[in-house]
Amino acid sequence: MHLPTPREGTSSHELQKFSTRAREASDLLKALAHHTRILILCIIADEEKTVGQIEDILGIQQAMVSQQLARLRLEGLVTTRRDGRLVYYRVGTPSTITFLNSLFSMVPATE
User: Fold this and answer.
1) In terms of pTM, does the model score above 0.70?
2) Residue 74 is assigned to a structural domain of this protein
3) C-alpha torsion 60→81→87→44, nearest 10
4) pLDDT digit string, tens, across residues 58-87
5) DSSP assignments along 10-45, one per residue
6) Does some domain include residue 86?
7) Which of 20, 27, 30, 88 could form a disulfide with 48 if both were Cys (CB 3.0 to 4.6 A apart)?
8) Rounded to the nearest 5 degrees, what angle is found at the Cα of 87, between the Cα atoms of 85 and 88?
9) How many domains are there within the chain?
């Protein structure tokens, strides 16, 4: 993959485009800067889940799960599907899962 790299002589228009993409990348990293949000994304990577199911898996209060899901939803990292009273959450894009796989490949496994 080729990283966009501003160089000497880069036009101001190109530099502005690069700056915008860098800001978007920074926003993504901020959205993922909480371990619970990363755990939630991993939990729903293969199969959609309700808040209650995520709460049971993580063993944390529903309010915390809902707060973290709201942030992920705001950033477009999760989407929802309503079935009656239940709301199911799933990862918003395949690129999010690709990113998480890359991220975890950079972090050494602990025992």
Assistant:
1) yes
2) yes
3) -20
4) 999 999 999 999 999 999 999 999 999 999
5) --HHHHHHHHHHHHHHHHHHHHT-SHHHHHHHHHTS
6) yes
7) 88
8) 140
9) 1
